[in-house]
Design a protein that fits this description.
Number of helices: 8
Helix content: 25-40%
Order of helices and strands: EEEHHEHEHEHHEHEH
Strand order of the largest sheet: 1-2-4-3-5-6-7-8
Low-confidence stretches: 29-34
Mean pLDDT: 93
InterPro entries: AB_hydrolase_fold, Esterase-like, Mycobacterial_A85_antigen
Strand content: 15-25%
Radius of gyration: 18 Å
Number of strands: 8
Protein name: Esterase family protein
Structural class: alpha/beta
Organism: Pseudolactococcus carnosus
Largest sheet: 8 strands, mixed
Pfam family, one: Esterase
């Protein structure tokens, strides 16, 4: 396994960006005795206080997948919520349209097929994972840990700095009808893409401030015909719980997840 730090110029954002990639050890095909290609890929998204280094620094994800044929791509959206902002910074386009091509140019053995591309994240990244999966249909599986999946019943004044949120999402009064709403994206999915919905997974702790938002979003997604696995347990909005739940996320993906040897 290799951990690669890639520095590239984003034509879409007009700035230099950094992205981290965990690249698996070469796996031999027993029939042909050659390295496998078409390696499945998980895009792993950070939360509001993080960047492209956070998952590596906080989760031990490199240890969890060291025996698994899976590449992990860890980009940064800064504080832009994986969205095309109202001030012209197109973070959504940079991650969804540009980054996969950048990664494939460096690492052509990584799969570009929808069925072998997955996306997951925590908190803001959980929102980003579901949003990107529903808005692009380029990912067959999406997972959210403590995701900000719904803004229902939240008054604008409760969000804090309105200038910041308006810079990201525009008119907050019209958020539910915009391309930034997971519920709106889910409503429009069949008309836009047809019946091949991504499979979804969500977890949130009972003591997490986003617990009710997850309940609302999951019920809505089920009503709209999405196949979603929803798990809850005691837990706060903290890394201790997200690290524990990454096992569940990796089990959820259509890969052969080879767990590390454990006594219990």
């Amino acid at each position: 396994m290799a951990i690669l730090k890639i520095n590239y110029f984003s034509e879409i954002l007009g700035i230099v960006r950094d992205v981290n990639v965990i690249y698996p050890e070469a796996v031999k095909n027993p029939d042909q005795d050659v390295p496998l290609t078409d390696i499945p890929v998980l895009y792993l998204l950070h939360g509001m206080s993080g960047n492209q280094d956070t998952w590596l620094n906080r989760s031990g994800i490199d240890r969890l997948i060291r025996n698994t044929n899976l590449a992990i791509v860890m980009p940064s959206t800064d504080l832009a919520w994986y969205s095309n902002t109202t001030y012209g910074a197109r973070y959504f386009d940079a991650i969804v349209e540009e980054l996969p091509n950048v990664i494939h140019n460096f690492l052509p053995n990584l799969s570009m097929k929808r069925e072998k591309n997955f996306i997951a994240g925590l908190s803001m990244g959980g929102y980003g994972a579901f949003k990107i999966a529903l808005a692009s249909n380029k990912f067959s599986y999406a997972a959210s840990l403590s995701g900000a999946l719904s803004f229902d019943n939240m008054a604008p004044e409760s969000l804090g700095d309105l200038a910041y949120w308006q810079g990201i999402f525009g008119d907050l009064a019209n958020f539910e009808n915009s391309e930034n709403s997971i519920q709106k994206l889910a409503s429009d999915f069949d008309e836009k893409f047809g019946e091949h919905k991504p499979k979804l997974y969500a977890w949130c702790g009972h003591q997490d401030f986003l617990y009710e938002a997850n309940n609302i979003a999951v019920a809505d997604l089920k009503d709209k015909g999405f196949e979603i696995t929803y798990e809850t347990s005691d837990g706060k909005h903290e890394w201790y719980y997200w690290v524990k739940m990454m096992d569940q996320v990796l089990d959820f993906l259509p890969i052969k997840y080879n767990k590390e040897e454990r006594l219990s």
